[in-house]
Amino acid sequence: VALVQGEIMQARSKKEDALDMQYYLRKSFFKTASLICSSCKSAALLAGYDEKSVETVSAEEFGYHLGMAYQIVDDILDFTGASASLGKPAQADMELGLATAPILFASQHVKELRPLIERKFKEKGDVQKAVQLSQSTDCVEKSYALADFHAHRAAEALTRLPPSESRDALMKILHLAISRDK
Q: What's the pTM?
């Protein structure tokens, strides 16, 4: 009985996770932002800065927010179909059963999306129906606002680094990540 109850609780929490923006953000960190974050911190350490120095902490913060902004924009491009120009099919994330920022924001206003997300878009036509239901919402704009939040935080972290050509280059990378259309 305890084993069956545990399986039911685990299944219930997975369904809840599918609709949870915080779960999506954690997943985005582990998928993309953690690599960029660790790389930026490593660069500061290799440059000779102490682990708790302003430079190292700022570099790590920059990497975290750059990675989050990059992943959110990537998810927006996938959702809107712009990813087709990258050589992958549009809505590839939903085809894999993944709910990303745009669909999660849309589900806050369109309750019919929730069962589609919970079943990971497994039934025929789920992906197309999800896109159609989402079109009446501001889910893409809200997703870009979330990416902009992270971009601004990344830029703030950069301002704590000494002025240099390297800092300017990082700012250009940040701008490219947030403004890209493919």
A: 0.88
